[in-house]
Design goal:
This protein has 186 residues and is of the alpha+beta class. The chain folds into 2 domains: 101 residues, Nucleotidyltransferase, domain 5; 57 residues, Dna Ligase, domain 1. β4 and β5 form a beta hairpin.
Length: 186
């Protein structure tokens, strides 16, 4: 989860078998765990990342928030993870491209790597490396149907989604940041 101490947000992981919640707060230079919870889900609510019983999932999300351990969850702002099995993350190389044509070039190139049409997916990307001849990108994509269903669950639960995160991207970012910290201390 991207942590911004100026925002009052909490993290929510929605998995096939459980929900997990965490609230962090910055105290000095440290992150402090203020609240947490987890809740097991019935096996038929979410199957392979697809929400099958949205009403039951809404009820479970609200129960998770109400029964959190520690400080009360006092915000509706949430960062939530999308199911790993329904998202795509790929590092790709493209030829150096003028900024005004970058979106079009990326949209064309991802067709070679992601088994969805550009009309069926939400696409995001980040430049990893760039020189005069090529650009290396971290590309993330998810089916619009899946993203919209998770967004709907959150909003129907009274939450305000700030970020819907691809789980693999969050893991990669946390490892990169951890390695940068280790290198600084080194």
């Amino acid at each position: 989860m991207l942590y911004n101490p100026s925002k009052n947000i909490f993290g929510l992981d929605i998995g096939d078998h459980s929900l997990k919640l965490v609230v962090l707060a910055k105290e000095g230079k440290k992150l402090i765990l203020k609240s947490f919870n987890d809740l097991n889900l019935a096996d038929d609510i979410i199957i392979n990342g697809e929400i099958k019983k949205p009403d039951e999932l809404n009820t479970a999300v609200n129960q998770l928030i109400r029964s959190a351990t520690g400080a009360k969850v006092n915000t509706s702002n949430v960062v939530a993870a999308l199911p790993e099995s329904k998202t795509f993350v790929k590092v790709i190389d493209i030829p150096a491209t003028p900024e005004e044509k970058l979106n079009l070039t990326i949209s064309e190139e991802v067709k070679n790597y992601i088994p969805l049409s550009t009309e069926e997916m939400y696409l995001d990307w980040q430049i990893l490396n760039q020189d005069q001849s090529h650009t290396q990108l971290l590309v993330g994509a998810a089916s619009k149907d899946v993203v919209n269903s998770y967004y709907s669950i959150l909003t129907n639960s009274g939450l305000s989604p700030c970020v819907l995160e691809i789980e693999a991207a969050a893991i990669i970012r946390s490892l990169i940041n951890e390695n940068k910290e280790k290198n600084r201390r080194g």
